[in-house]
Amino acid sequence: MVVRTRLREIRKLRGFSAADLAHRVGVSRQTIYSIEDGSFVPNTTVSLQLARALDVTVEEIFSIPEELEHESISADLLAADEPAKQGQLVRFCRVDERLMAIPLSAEPAYLPPADGIIESRSRHSVSIRSPAGFPENAQRLLLAGCDPALSLLNELLGSSNTEIISVPCSSHRALEWLKQRRVHAAGSHLLDLATGEYNIPLIRRLFPNGSVRVVNFAVWEQGLVLAAGNPKRISSIADLGRKDVTIVNREKGSGSRALLDTGLRRAGIKPDRVKGYSTIAQGHLSAGHAVAAGTADCCIAPLSASRCFGLDFIPLATERFDLSFNKAALELPAAKALLDLLNRSRFQRKLETIAGYDTAHTGEVLI
């Protein structure tokens, strides 16, 4: 979410230097400058302290524009074989005087960043051949979860020498690994039917000793991801019982699987009546790719998955995706850099524009 600020204007009207205001609020002078130039959105505590120090309301310092401003840019399209679709994600690159737009695909065309290859394996361990060994000086954070937008973290963290290693898996599996201390952080979007709240009730049961910190990543829409143009005219989960509709499902323990099962129960449709119910895709983008490739007519995934492939989308639920951190991991430089990034307006604008997420509470500590 874009937040506009009048902090510099009000500070100067009050006759405070940035150092004076920083001392009164208990932050660094650089933090004051970052808030003033819009690159850092402070949390509630700092916002209230700023308002108190300047004798104004929070609303006088910060405001939210009614509409998110976007820049329209003209560029030459650079596509290989597949025609670019409206709504498809792109990257920019300037070549001499020409601005090129390159459509993105979730299917990798090049080798991903890697540290080595597996030489041999036993049941629970592997032997790896690496050209340089483990990079001891690397600031890395291991994060398990299913949100496709987690990939945006590394793009904006690169200058800080911090790297997020993301492991795609279901929400339940991510929290399981966090409890086993196999990852630093876990992402989840699990609805507690008894309370109607996302994530927190389950996390409190899994970690009764309060050993984790939970921070909001974003709020997203999850729904039916359909072939471009929706040729099968699918409009709701009830249509998934039709004989001419084939879906691709997600694994047990995933939020998408839970949303599908809840919708089928409400529609009075048994899973064995749904073609493709037993066909599993490991991840939102894998499910979206099956629809884009034509091997399925529909899947349930977040809006970001449909944008990745230029597919149609029908929202079914608004969900909260949170990150749970092992408290010991919060002392790692990589964790500190990640939490700082979540509060940066640049990152929040990226989540809104590229993934279509709501970032009104991004970076807020929930427990």
- With strands numbered from the N-terminus, the spatial order across the biggest sheet is 9-8-10-17-13-16
Relative helix content:
25-40%
Note poorly predicted spans. none
CATH class wording of the largest domain: Alpha Beta
Estimated radius of gyration: 23 Å
Shape: globular
Structural class: alpha/beta
Number of discrete domains: 4
Strand content: 15-25%
* SSE run: EHHHHHEEEEEEEHEHEEEHEEHEHEHEHH
Secondary-structure blueprint:
Elements: E1 4-5, H1 7-13, H2 18-25, H3 29-36, H4 44-54, H5 58-61, E2 62-63, E3 76-77, E4 90-95, E5 98-103, E6 117-121, E7 126-129, E8 139-145, H6 151-157, E9 162-168, H7 171-179, E10 185-188, E11 191-192, E12 197-198, H8 200-206, E13 212-226, E14 249-250, H9 255-267, E15 280-281, H10 284-293, E16 298-302, H11 303-309, E17 312-326, H12 333-342, H13 345-355
Please characterize this protein's 3D structure.
The protein has 367 residues and is α/β, with parallel strands linked by helices. It folds into 4 domains: 4-63, lambda repressor-like DNA-binding domains (434 Repressor (Amino-terminal Domain), Orthogonal Bundle); 70-104, no CATH class; 140-221 and 319-355, Periplasmic binding protein-like II (D-Maltodextrin-Binding Protein, domain 2, 3-Layer(aba) Sandwich), CATH 3.40.190; 224-310, 3-Layer(aba) Sandwich (D-Maltodextrin-Binding Protein, domain 2), CATH 3.40.190. Helix content is 31%, strand content 24%. It has helices at 7-13, 18-25, 29-36, 44-54, 58-61, 151-157, 171-179, 200-206, 255-267, 284-293, 303-309, 333-342, 345-355, and strands at 4-5, 62-63, 76-77, 90-95, 98-103, 117-121, 126-129, 139-145, 162-168, 185-188, 191-192, 197-198, 212-226, 249-250, 280-281, 298-302, 312-326. The chain is globular and about 70 Å long.
